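User: Can you model how S-adenosylmethionine sits in this protein?
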Amino acid sequence: MINRGQSLDGDGYVEEIPYTYGYHPELAPSRMRFALLLAGYEAPEVRRACELGFGRGLSLAVHAAATDIHWYGNDLLPQHVAGLRELVASSGARVTVFAEPFADFCTRDDLPSFDFIGLHGVWNWVSIENRARIVDFLNTRLAPGGVVYLGHNSLAGWRSMLPLRQWLVADVERSRAQGLTLADGIELARTRAAELADPELELPSRFLRGKSIAYLAHELFNRDWHPMAFRDVEHALQRADLAFVAEARGVDAFESLNFTAPQRAQLGALDRGAREDAKDRFLARKFRRDYFGKRGGLRVLSAAERLQRLQAQRIALACSRERAMADLVVGACAVRIDPQRVARIVTLLAEHGPLSIGEIATEPAEFSAALECVALLIDRAAVALVINDSVDERIDHACRAVNERLSRLAQTQPEVTVRAHPVYGVGEPTG
Ligand SMILES: C[S@@+](CC[C@H](N)C(=O)[O-])C[C@H]1O[C@@H](n2cnc3c(N)ncnc32)[C@H](O)[C@@H]1O
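Assistant: Here's the modeled complex, given as structure tokens:
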């Protein structure tokens, strides 16, 4: 494999090409709370959280600045950790991070227990030994009633890439042996892949064309790359006594938005694990975002409590009215959502400022349809959950400090398109 020759410290992870800057709102505890509420669970109060393998650290920096939560985390690469420390330096955000591999971090005896532990884009890119260390960590470090976020590659969407990836890795290894850089090797392999007269490889080869070399290097060229079926992930996490609670994107909670009537009929006949796998197949999904909780550790809300809490949830328009509507037209769910209902919600928020969902959906018969629209708008970052009604001075200062650095960083890294929001507790897109 590509990284076989690198030091053992590298753990088979691509170090030659810096990782991309990504922001993942599902790592925000406020999003977790909303997804759990949709699924009918009471979320834990999050005081301490931890992100494993945080990469460039945008999510961790934003979530630490925009909330009161003390965030911990680790990443293998010292430059990732240094970059994150620089982002939050003297901001007052409570961040404790370590430049350590999972083998060391997960066995530290000086860590607290966490109400929320997240890992995005890590699970499938590490060895079986590291997955076992992560599971042990979740088992020992998750507080009772805590929640785990896992953003992970799904086998359903990557099936066709498996044979092409093997070919690509071998091709890049040959190029490397001839002295090419990893980036040049990948570029050449991508060109050659497009010329392979193999109809089965056409689709995955087309996928490679639209992606950056940095993305491809980290997606496909680590020593480890193991997209997994949901059921296998679920099974692995059972060792930490974790059970699936909800998909992390609120919009995924509404099957009527995402699946046809015959698909829904099929899903209805399946048990939980088989159902999630079938959903991935129907959507040819490459990436899943899930919350898991300790078995029996989360309180189930009564239907009345759920409804009352959803009605009380305040939301705000987080972009212009035009963008909120424009984004909607291109989304996958657009075919099944009523644009007039969405327009009415967007207009209400634009004219009145933040409102509770109950104030938006006053007719009981309309509530569920309105909730679908709200979940979709949140997913598109057009609407945000309001988590702080008044801006806390410390959080405001931390957001300003981190945002100033993010703006500076964005001058050289155009992927940095997010800023910490002191009222929403998440990152707000700049565009
Ligand atoms: C695909 S990246 C995802 C980064 C980040 N979570 C994101 O989604 O933007 C995987 C991250 O895991 C880290 N990583 C890989 N192997 C690791 C290990 N053995 N110990 C600690 N971190 C590791 C890498 O340095 C990298 O930052």
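A couple of observations from the model: The CA atoms of residues 94 and 304 lie 36 Å apart. The pocket of S-adenosylmethionine is lined by residues 11, 13, 19, 22, 24, 53-55, 74-77, 80, 101-102, 120-122, 125-126, 130, 218 (CB under 6 Å).
User: Helpful, thanks.
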